[in-house]
Amino acid sequence: xxxxxxxxxxxxxxxxxxxxxxxxxxxxxxxxxxxxxxxxxxxxxxxxxxxxxxxxxxxxxxxxxxxxxxxxxxxxxxxxxxxxxxxxxxxxxxxxxxxxxxxxxxxxxxxxxxxxxxxxxxxxxxxxxxxxxxxxxxxxxxxxxxxxxxxxxxxxxxxxxxxxxxxxxxxxxxxxxxxxxxxxxxxxxxxxxxxxxxxxxxxxxxxxxxxxxxxxxxxxxxxxxxxxxxxxxxxxxxxxxxxxxxxxxxxx
Length: 252
Ligand SMILES: C[S@@+](CC[C@H](N)C(=O)[O-])C[C@H]1O[C@@H](n2cnc3c(N)ncnc32)[C@H](O)[C@@H]1O
Prior knowledge:
By secondary structure, the protein is an alpha/beta fold.
């Protein structure tokens, strides 16, 4: 996808424009793709038997990626998270929610939510992440699951929402500053009539007062104790102004 800020104006003299790769291009994406294919086994996903993913195991040696890249961050894309699993499960159980609609998977990681949306019949799925390694993983995982998902390397908490009907957010409220930026972006989405769904295992910075619970499932969370975990939730993110929320208009 071309960012609108990168598009040439028709009257520009192209000879004066420095050659610049598209914004989503990053040389690490190709290297990551080769590494993931070679080292991360294809494994089933807990609670989502419909989907398989390249997931890190004890022998994957992710430290080798970190050694080559001083900017290597937390490899969220290599693991499963409660928020993504619960939202993917919901979309597969309720395909009517996304069928026939374009979807943005925001903070896509492995791409599990976007892949579930595509399997449920979404017309177009954009999977946005800031991490080039996630972009590589999403591409491989989409192919593995025989669906079309467009991975886009972008800080999606900045700028305008893309043209979409519904934004799906799996597990993005784990840090205060990020939660604040994401919430502001989701407010922009609501203002533009875009529906927002959130899947989350009740992380610390979830904007509780803005959420309407739609469903709960017990799903595992990477690194958390397997036994006794409370159900994770799927929520509709709602406007600050109650009258704008779905349902209120129907009663007026
Ligand atoms: C905990 S992981 C969740 C991944 C996936 N949604 C899931 O539930 O399995 C959070 C992901 O959000 C991405 N992320 C963080 N900030 C972002 C931003 N501003 N725009 C896009 N992606 C972002 C991270 O790189 C990471 O892959």
